[in-house]
């Protein structure tokens, strides 16, 4: 029944390493300008046609649970759940690479990609050998650029890097006369930011509790760690609620979520993605996560979110989005196609004739008018406040 | 992420005041509980709502001792103590301040249907009251503020307004009683109390609507309490209590300052007396057009064609107006300069000229005299053509610069500073802003797009040309409309650069829209609620595009943003020459409307602008980036003080 196995994923990673195009990628549209840009940069994603972001998500949240994956990888000889070293050994002579550091952090399935990036950037400051503020800033900029170019399809990674730069460098510390104190101040800020980002999920879970009332039915789409945290907290608070999980094709992240919820003894029902409208009348609210929150207040999220929001809107059900503030991105898509494409292979189980085109986009954009509220670590916001926050941060 | 938000807290709250704001003290989330009761009333007061002429600041002091304790004690009302919650007055006093304004009409109606109910009750009230509330009555009567009332009666500055007073009294009563409720109450007592309060409310309403003199005469005889309410003689003192309560908020700016903030009301041209006065002052003699459309009578409309010769003949009499300004004004009048940016730049350059030739008369200071001169120029320009919002903003900028000149600065230095300031404004706020807009907007044009634009917007033209230079493959649809046919000029320029264009009139917009992928529009101004104020017809285009799910992008420099809110195109607009819509150029045989002016029953409406609701706008492209229409007030708030006015 489960087509996808751990070995499948490992095979895929092997393939990625070998940069061998899979037969499906023949169907993919020509390389987007952005990914071609990524190739020109020094550390490109091995296979730019496939969104690394969604690859990671699939690896972490798809049907194969992380422990399964851990076992499999342990067999291969890696230990993804091992904590990466606190500070990389700079003095060992080996040049420090922010990508390595990032990958190190990223292997923890519980750690969001942006938080991993933030931590990696923090360690850049720590290990920097710069002697002037300007030098340090340039170094940091370079590191964040290489991180961003590592995966251009991940909005939270880009946004997280940008926000980190904003947060860390936008401080009066730069006017300190002593470089070392200024640097330590920067490190302090960087760590604080990392900490805040790490705790964001907890804050969101606390904020959203008031909205979950006893006896409600919640529809969730895909697997979102924030939403899981929200539901987990609600279950811990002894709220009585029921969850409808969509399947979340093609990587079936919904199955994972239903699995986790069942462990918490939350009544959960699994739907196929196309049954959303059918079961919407029994739903009291829709909870979704977000890959990125854009300036209009809309969200970019896993494919299918838009149609769920549309259905919910037409039936007057509230749509709540749980998203950490490091996902706020300075993007403004006008429509679905107005985004950098993030593609991923889809396994249909049967071979698809080569004449048939497959829509492989991994995400869609939900405009703000279909969202009710955003739960972020900045508070519970209406979609229009997102732009307010972004303007204040960036301008 | 509190730490990231920290800088916001540091920001002086004054900076963050946009159109509607609570007084700074209450804008802070940490407002102390005693104020909480008052805040709604002062919140409801937006500067827009204050009518500007208010002669005397109201002596609100006596009120405060009376109200403060009541506010303090009514905190339990807010908490969810069920017994208090159930009482209707509790909810009344909670809401009382804010809906007061709205309910006035209703209360008046209500009272007229029940003319004497209030008085009956007033007479019987003492009997109904339980002991505890009798005590309340005495409490209410004791504060010094109340004893001071009779003295105030004569003066206009009565502050207990016709339903503010009673509500206040109810509040006192209620707070006192809520205290007593907690001590000990039987059900019957509570009921009696409730009844009493309800009736007190009715009394208040009834009395409020009575002619004040009569009411005061009658009521003085019946009861001591209602006297207070009815002692408020003036009818228009709705404001006064608000002012009073807000005074107690303490941190409102003084009267004078606020008056400055309040925009002067625009001249309403259906107000005969003021129009006459204005005419006497006017430099340009203008004959008003006949047969104006009823709804738009408040807007100025003149016979076109009569004014330019008149202005020309007066050239040598107009000594206060600088020739450069005169030239610009006459060009406005003739319609040579149009478009928000062009008009604004022309005006600023004329001002620059005039500043260059300016010399301070003896015994006057530069700041004051130059401001007066500017005012004179501006009123001249207004006579030529009503100012656009962008020009208004530019003038405001220039005036603040003049006012901020240090007194010690020498005249030549001051003049140089001002001229460079004007240059900077033109460069940064208009030219550079346009370049930024172009840079942002080009990212939204993809190969294969069909872009629709309406009329002729300089920003949109630059965007299209730049995108073409970048080698993007797209097609342009230019939609135009009579009578100005501005699109033809744009069409000519675009064709000259080799763009592929389609030209059509607005009548065909619903047909052409299905093939369009983006709509780019310019704007004369964007208002705080996201309303786009632009050339007439824009709203129609935006609406059709919205209906077809085509994204609408509005390109507008941030200096054209305004904190005003406008819901329709009626209250502020400009009327064009009605003759232009009655005639069709080049078609002599269409002459059905030739002598329209002689027909009493015919009115022609040639509107210049319209207001596009923000719902139809997908994105606003401004020099600060691409923002949703909901973020206009944010930009106005964040940049008005620091950047926009430099």
TrEMBL record, chain A:
Signal found in the keyword field: no
Gene Ontology cellular component list: cytosol; eukaryotic translation initiation factor 2B complex
Family annotation (SUPFAM superfamilies): NagB/RpiA/CoA transferase-like
Quaternary context: Component of the translation initiation factor 2B (eIF2B) complex which is a heterodecamer of two sets of five different subunits: alpha, beta, gamma, delta and epsilon. Subunits alpha, beta and delta comprise a regulatory subcomplex and subunits epsilon and gamma comprise a catalytic subcomplex. Within the complex, the hexameric regulatory complex resides at the center, with the two heterodimeric catalytic subcomplexes bound on opposite sides.
InterPro entries in UniProt: eIF2B_alpha/beta/delta (IPR051501), elF-2B_alpha_N (IPR042528), IF-2B-related (IPR000649), IF_2B-like_C (IPR042529), NagB/RpiA_transferase-like (IPR037171)
Biased composition (Polar residues): 28-44
Organism domain of life: Eukaryota
Location(s) in or outside the cell: Cytoplasm, Cytosol
The protein's name: Translation initiation factor eIF2B subunit alpha
Organism name: Actinidia chinensis var. chinensis
Gene Ontology molecular function: guanyl-nucleotide exchange factor activity; translation initiation factor activity
UniProtKB/TrEMBL annotation, chain B:
InterPro entries in the cross-refs: IF-2B-related, IF_2B-like_C, NagB/RpiA_transferase-like
GO MF terms held by the record: translation initiation factor activity
Biased composition (Basic and acidic residues): 1-15, 150-164, 180-193, 245-268
Sequence ranges of Polar residues compositional bias: 80-92, 132-141, 232-243
GO CC, any one term: cytosol
UniProt KW Cytoplasm keyword: yes
Extent of the signal sequence: none
Keywords: Cytoplasm, Initiation factor, Protein biosynthesis
Skewed-composition ranges (Pro residues): 49-62
Biased composition (Low complexity): 22-48, 194-206
Places the protein is found: Cytoplasm, Cytosol
Segments of this protein annotated with the region Disordered: 1-110, 132-268
The protein's assembly and partners: Component of the translation initiation factor 2B (eIF2B) complex which is a heterodecamer of two sets of five different subunits: alpha, beta, gamma, delta and epsilon. Subunits alpha, beta and delta comprise a regulatory subcomplex and subunits epsilon and gamma comprise a catalytic subcomplex. Within the complex, the hexameric regulatory complex resides at the center, with the two heterodimeric catalytic subcomplexes bound on opposite sides.
Entry similarity comment: Belongs to the eIF-2B alpha/beta/delta subunits family.
Protein name (database record): Translation initiation factor eIF2B subunit delta
Organism: Actinidia chinensis var. chinensis
């Amino acid at each position: 029944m489960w087509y996808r196995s751990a070995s499948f994923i490992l095979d895929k990673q092997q393939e990625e390493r070998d940069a061998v195009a899979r037969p499906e990628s023949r169907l993919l549209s020509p390389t987007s300008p952005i990914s071609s840009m990524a190739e020109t940069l020094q550390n490109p994603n091995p296979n730019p046609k496939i969104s690394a972001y969604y690859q990671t998500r699939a690896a972490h949240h798809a049907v194969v649970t992380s422990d399964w994956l851990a076992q499999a990888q342990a067999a291969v000889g890696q230990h993804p759940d091992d904590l990466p070293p606190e500070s990389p050994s700079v003095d060992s002579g080996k040049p420090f690479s922010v990508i390595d550091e990032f990958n190190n952090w990223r292997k923890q399935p519980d750690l969001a990609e942006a938080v991993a990036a933030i931590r990696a950037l923090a360690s850049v400051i720590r290990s920097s050998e710069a002697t002037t503020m300007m030098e340090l800033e340039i170094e940091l900029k370079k590191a964040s650029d290489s991180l961003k170019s590592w995966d251009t399809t991940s909005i939270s990674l880009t946004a997280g890097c940008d926000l980190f730069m904003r947060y860390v460098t936008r401080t009066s510390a730069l006017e300190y006369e002593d470089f070392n104190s200024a640097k330590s101040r920067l490190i302090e800020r960087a760590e604080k930011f990392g900490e805040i980002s790490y705790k964001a999920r907890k804050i969101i879970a606390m904020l959203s509790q008031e909205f979950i009332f006893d006896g409600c039915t919640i529809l969730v789409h895909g697997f979102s760690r924030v939403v899981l945290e929200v539901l987990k907290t609600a279950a811990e608070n002894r709220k009585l609620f029921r969850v409808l999980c969509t399947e979340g094709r093609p990587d079936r992240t919904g199955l994972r979520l239903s699995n986790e919820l069942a462990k918490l003894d939350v009544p959960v029902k699994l739907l196929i993605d196309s049954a959303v409208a059918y079961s919407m009348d029994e739903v009291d609210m829709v909870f979704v996560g977000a890959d990125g929150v854009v300036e209009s207040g809309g969200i970019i999220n896993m494919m299918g979110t838009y149609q769920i929001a549309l259905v919910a809107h037409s039936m007057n059900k509230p749509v709540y989005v749980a998203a950490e503030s490091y996902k706020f991105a300075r993007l403004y898509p006008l429509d679905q196609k107005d985004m950098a494409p993030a593609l991923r292979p889809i396994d249909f189980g049967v071979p698809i004739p080569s004449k048939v085109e497959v829509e492989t986009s991994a995400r869609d954009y939900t405009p703000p008018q279909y969202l009710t509220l955003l739960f972020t670590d900045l508070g519970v916001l209406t979609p229009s406040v997102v732009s307010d926050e972004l303007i204040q941060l960036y301008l | 992420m509190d730490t990231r938000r920290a800088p916001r807290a540091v920001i002086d709250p004054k900076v963050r005041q946009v159109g509607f704001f609570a007084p700074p003290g209450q804008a802070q989330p940490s407002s102390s509980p005693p104020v909480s009761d008052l805040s709604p009333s002062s919140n409801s007061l937006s500067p827009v709502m204050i009518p500007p002429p208010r002669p005397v600041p109201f002596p609100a002091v006596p009120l405060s001792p009376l109200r403060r304790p009541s506010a303090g004690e009514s905190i339990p009302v807010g908490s969810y103590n069920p017994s208090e919650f159930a009482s209707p007055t509790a909810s009344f006093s909670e809401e009382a301040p804010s809906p007061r304004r709205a309910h006035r009409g209703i209360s008046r109606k209500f009272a007229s249907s029940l003319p004497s109910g209030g008085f009956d009750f007033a007479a019987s009230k003492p009997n109904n009251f339980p002991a505890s509330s009798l005590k309340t009555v005495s409490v209410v009567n004791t504060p010094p503020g109340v004893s001071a009332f009779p003295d105030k009666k004569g003066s206009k500055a009565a502050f207990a307004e016709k339903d503010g007073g009673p509500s206040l009294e109810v509040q006192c009563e209620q707070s006192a009683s809520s205290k007593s409720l907690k001590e000990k109450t039987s059900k019957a007592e509570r009921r009696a109390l409730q009844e009493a309060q309800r009736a007190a409310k009715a009394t208040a309403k009834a009395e409020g609507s009575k002619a004040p003199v009569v009411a005061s005469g009658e009521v003085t005889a019946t009861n001591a309490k209602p006297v207070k309410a009815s002692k408020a003689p003036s009818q228009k003192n709705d404001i006064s209590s608000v002012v009073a309560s807000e005074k107690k908020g303490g941190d409102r700016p003084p009267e004078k300052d606020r008056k400055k903030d309040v925009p002067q009301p625009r001249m309403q041209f259906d107000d005969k007396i003021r129009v006459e006065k204005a005419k006497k002052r006017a430099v340009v003699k203008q004959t008003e057009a006949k047969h104006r459309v009823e709804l738009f009578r408040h807007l100025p409309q003149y016979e076109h064609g009569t004014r330019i010769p008149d202005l020309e003949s007066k050239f040598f009499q107009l000594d206060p107006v600088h020739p450069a300004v005169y030239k610009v004004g006459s060009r406005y009048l003739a319609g040579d300069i149009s478009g928000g940016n062009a008009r604004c730049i022309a005006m600023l350059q004329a001002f620059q000229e005039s500043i260059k030739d300016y010399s301070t008369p003896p015994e006057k200071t530069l700041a004051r005299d130059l401001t007066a001169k500017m005012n004179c120029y501006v009123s001249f320009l207004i006579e030529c053509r009503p100012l656009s919002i962008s020009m208004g903003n530019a003038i405001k900028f220039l005036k603040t610069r003049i006012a901020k000149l240090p007194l010690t600065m020498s005249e030549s230095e001051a003049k140089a500073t001002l001229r460079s300031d004007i240059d900077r404004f033109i460069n940064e706020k208009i030219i550079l802003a346009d370049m930024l807009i172009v840079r942002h907007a080009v990212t939204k044009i993809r190969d294969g797009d069909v872009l629709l634009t309406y009329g002729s917007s300089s920003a949109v033209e630059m965007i299209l040309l730049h995108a073409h230079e970048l080698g993007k493959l797209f097609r342009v649809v230019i939609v135009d409309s009579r009578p100005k046919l501005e699109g033809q000029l744009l069409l000519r320029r675009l064709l000259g650069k080799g763009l592929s264009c389609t030209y059509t009139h607005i009548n065909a917009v619903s047909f052409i829209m299905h093939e369009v992928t983006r709509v780019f529009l310019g704007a004369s101004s964007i208002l705080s609620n996201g309303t786009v104020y632009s050339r007439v017809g824009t709203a129609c285009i935006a609406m059709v595009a919205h209906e077809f799910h085509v994204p609408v992008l509005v390109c507008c420099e941030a200096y054209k943003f305004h904190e005003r809110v406008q819901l329709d195109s009626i209250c502020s607009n400009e009327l064009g020459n009605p003759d232009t819509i009655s005639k069709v150029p080049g078609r002599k045989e269409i002459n059905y409307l030739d002598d329209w002016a002689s027909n009493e029953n015919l009115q022609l409406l040639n509107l210049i602008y319209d207001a596009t609701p923000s719902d139809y706008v997908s994105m606003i492209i401004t020099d600060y980036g691409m923002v949703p229409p909901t973020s206009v007030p944010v930009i106005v708030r964040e940049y008005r003080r620091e950047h926009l006015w430099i």
